[in-house]
Amino acid sequence: MTSTLPATATSREDAAALDVADPLAHFRDRYLPLAPGVTAYLDGNSLGRPLAAIAERSDAFIREQWAGRLIRGWSEGWMELPEQVGDELAAATLGAAAGQTLIADSTTINFYKTLRAALALRPDRTRIVIDRDHFPTNRFVVESVVRDLGLEIAWLPGSVDGGVTVDALAEVLDERVAVVALSHVAYRSGHLADAAAITAATHRAGALVVWDLCHSVGACEIELDAWEVDFAVGCTYKFVGAGPGAPAFLYAAARHHDRLDQPLWGWLGRADPFEMEQGYRPAPGIRSMMSGTPSIPGVLAVREGARVIAEAGMPAVRAKAVALTELVVELADSWLAPEGFTLASPRDPARRGGHVSVARADARQVCAALVEAGVLPDFRTPDVVRLGVSPLPASFVEVWDALAVMREIGR
Ligand SMILES: Cc1ncc(COP(=O)(O)O)c(C=O)c1O
Ligand SMILES: Nc1c(O)cccc1C(=O)C[C@H](N)C(=O)O
């Protein structure tokens, strides 16, 4: 169980005291400072802030390894990095044993590959379950796969409408369902699904799961092996902080490796790629999920993000995510609700990820005014201001000050 820090702050001094008591406060110094004119960064879950180590190590990589080793780098370790760093991220934050995680491609590509691999394991079934409020890329990939393979979608209501629960799933789960593909944390509402229970219910119906962990990795505790997840994907540029467009991760449980059949056959997923042979023969294990050349600077940035999470420890990171989001909810209740904002995220911290959304019809204008005032949130259509509080770089005073600015703007 995750312990939670008390978040109650009724004054700015209280918020400052929470920062003094925060065991993770020193991690803030690991990040490059906010740009001039920016006083609060609450967009941590679309793009995290850069670690200074990424700037330093990528410069060293370019000078020493790229310039120094040139093409020799591939045979001197770069080729193995997607699996090595996958294992590091898995140990730091995915609850997954080695040999099941790769860092490569984008979430969209990895979602496509894992979805097709899961479908290939249930060839006699015809349905994919997703929810209405799933991130657009996931909906579009599912819609294209359904079109291409002649399957159908069983829609759950969105997370805000109670869709991503075992009870809602029970309404659609039957022997036609091949795959249940949901987000662990919903991108708009921040709803945290009970991944263990949903995975177990899915398995009882004979189907497989593909979890999208984009918004939970680095903010929520994840136990892929213990939950017996089949496949999972996620990005590394939000709470992991590996930078815009950094490669995503992909998890495929070891028990499926002898029958992994992914749709994007590329040379790096083949056994002995440098033999340049005719015909595709998959590489053993998780390597067969590779397609083309991975971005090595990107994979190395993921390593830095994984390292800092491992050092802080996920229980402490999660405790701070809960404490920060509790403070946002408290301030939203006392300062924003009287101005007509409504909470658009779960009130129960056990069902909430690392961000809090508040809704008001003029959210777009509110977000524009916040940006103007140096507070960077996310606007999500049609009416949501999404406040991402990244546990390692964010402070309680930063949240207090940002919400104070928002109260003024909202008047
Ligand atoms: C749940 C979810 N899945 C996928 C993505 C995006 O995938 P990609 O990195 O391929 O653009 C995002 C955000 O961009 C997301 O929130
Ligand atoms: N991936 C992004 C991008 O390339 C540009 C702007 C935003 C993003 C995001 O990550 C959006 C994000 N997944 C969301 O939940 O809204």
From TrEMBL:
Function: Catalyzes the cleavage of L-kynurenine (L-Kyn) and L-3-hydroxykynurenine (L-3OHKyn) into anthranilic acid (AA) and 3-hydroxyanthranilic acid (3-OHAA), respectively.
Pathway assignment: Amino-acid degradation; L-kynurenine degradation; L-alanine and anthranilate from L-kynurenine: step 1/1; Cofactor biosynthesis; NAD(+) biosynthesis; quinolinate from L-kynurenine: step 2/3
Catalytic reaction equation(s): L-kynurenine + H2O = anthranilate + L-alanine + H(+); 3-hydroxy-L-kynurenine + H2O = 3-hydroxyanthranilate + L-alanine + H(+)
Keywords from the named record: Hydrolase, Pyridine nucleotide biosynthesis, Pyridoxal phosphate
Record has RNA-binding as a keyword: no
Protein name: Kynureninase
Pfam families: KYNU_C
Family statement: Belongs to the kynureninase family.
Top enzyme class: hydrolase
GO biological process, one term: NAD+ biosynthetic process
Gene Ontology cellular component annotations, sorted alphabetically: cytoplasm
Domain of life (superkingdom): Bacteria
Gene Ontology terms, MF aspect: kynureninase activity; pyridoxal phosphate binding
Family matches, as Gene3D superfamilies: Aspartate Aminotransferase, domain 1 (3.90.1150.10), Type I PLP-dependent aspartate aminotransferase-like (Major domain) (3.40.640.10)
Required co-factors: pyridoxal 5'-phosphate
EC number: 3.7.1.3
UniProt entry tagged with the keyword Ligase: no
SUPFAM superfamilies documented for this protein: PLP-dependent transferases
Subunit structure: Homodimer.
